[in-house]
């Protein structure tokens, strides 16, 4: 239950960051693509193989210094079922290397449908009495627009299977305020209403570090809201996107952490995946460049928050 | 652009309904399961094969009298990548049989990520200059909690590729009001605010029947809101879940239609898929039972709204 496993990974590595695995084909070095297409064909299977090979290299290069990865489902779904196979293989490999996997699917539905998503991304599926792990993963991002009916089916998995969810609260994009910042009944915003629900939904799963298994997504691009929410949500762990390419910096995310340096994990995707292109390295150097970029990000954030735990 | 193709299917069949393909293994007759497991193994591949075989039978039995199907992604994702292959195969088969396919994924993300979902579920993916269709589908259900940034990337596909989206507005579940019914700034509800956005987002894709390619999901379980929204959203086509098993009846959905009997498509899933079990038929009769149930549903609704178009 709770995010204790993630938090222990953060303390062990002294690194409160997560690498977003959003692997577009154009981020993948030519050598890897060529090999994968030669083996599987210039098709969706070849694309899936290239994505998995790319991710495997990144995971190998990062697993001792970064506690978690966050594959973004959309970039796998766009390659059809072979892309989804690459998602499965990536999750399995990252977990085998000791990383905590946050599957970023922003799923949201109700009742038995949400139970099906829970099985897909946090649990297991039975077929004729045999048990299979559809995608695995340790946590899932979810959308609460449908209300508690969409969240309740996930809570048993958080409680009994040591899994977590991150509910979209205040997202990092420019237009997030259109709906999320509207003032409702008593004067609170929509996002704050959802945030308060997170505290309630998570109440029965608070772990030994004081955080529950129901986290919140709060963007680095809104540092004031991040500060306000950190103060008002004592048991809700934050997943913070929007660092780097989207504009958030170390000074923006500082307020996401509590006095122990806990309470949040900061995501960077392109800043790590595309480091080799941004630095003008050869494709063969993509893992070295990613590791350097991950260390730079870690040091910039830890320079602000100090020793963790 | 717009929902003209769906509307033409509705007029041709004189049937404003869509069959939800939410194929749990326990809905599938023993004979189909046995054959699929014998061919593929008692595993996720076998489950995927059984699901596709079940769906194919339903599509064959329904394609001349029902204009559309709505596969619910979660029930495919829970069987991992073989489940996603069954989703692909189901969509392809239904389209080949002339049906309009609404993929019910309730996806919602931003920018390039939402573009990836658009490619996955409404469009095409390029691999080394070759074009592939990841999942196909004619329309996708989407969640607008992230604001316009999550919807804009889909609109080019609605405009140029003759696709559509259905935005979650007022969902059919019990707790939908927790967030959706909150009163915001000027006194409107959250769901009405999203509904008004639908009219704006769809403005450039209004087709020959007066409806745009940006539809709204409005539950049959809230007939008053359905009536209010029909009046206030003249160019927004409705996808209406919650009929049958969830409690909505023909009298509840009548208000979803305009005076021509257009403006909405009503979904039933279990009422059709499980008709053979509900009626105590043999498994070999599941397509016959589904067809009868689909005809009953059509007649009950058309009995209220009269000739369509």
Our count of helices of chain A gives 14
Main-sheet strand order of chain A equals: 1-2-3-6-7-8-9-10
Q: Tell how many strands the DSSP assignment of chain A holds.
A: 10
Task: Please bin the fraction of helical residues of chain A.
Answer: 40-55%
Oligomer: homodimer
Largest interface: A-B, 74 and 74 residues
Order of helices and strands of chain A, N to C?
A: HEHHEHHEHEEEHEHHEHEHEHHH
Structural class of chain A: alpha/beta
Distance separating the two termini of chain A: 19 Å
Ordered list of secondary-structure elements with their pairings:
2 copies of one chain form a homodimer.
Chain A: H1 4-13, E1 17-21, H2 30-40, H3 44-62, E2 68-71, H4 74-77, H5 80-96, E3 100-107, H6 111-121, E4 125-127, E5 130-132, E6 139-142, H7 155-160, E7 164-170, H8 177-180, H9 190-202, E8 214-218, H10 223-232, E9 238-240, H11 250-253, E10 264-268, H12 270-273, H13 275-278, H14 286-305
Parallel strand pairs in A: 1-2, 1-10, 2-3, 3-6, 6-7, 7-8, 8-9, 9-10
Antiparallel strand pairs in A: 4-5
Summarize the structure.
2 copies of one chain form a homodimer. The first copy, chain A, is built from 14 helices and 10 strands.
What attributes characterize this protein structure?
homodimer; alpha/beta; two-stranded antiparallel ribbon; 10 strands; 44% helix
Describe the fold and architecture.
The first copy, chain A, has helices spanning 4-13, 30-40, 44-62, 74-77, 80-96, 111-121, 155-160, 177-180, 190-202, 223-232, 250-253, 270-273, 275-278, 286-305, and strands at 17-21, 68-71, 100-107, 125-127, 130-132, 139-142, 164-170, 214-218, 238-240, 264-268. Chain A is α/β, with parallel strands linked by helices and 309 residues long. Chain A has an eight-stranded parallel barrel, surrounded by six helices. A two-stranded antiparallel ribbon of chain A has the order 4-5. In chain A, helix 3 (44-62) packs parallel to helix 5 and helix 3 (44-62) packs across helix 14. Chain A starts with a helix and ends with a helix.
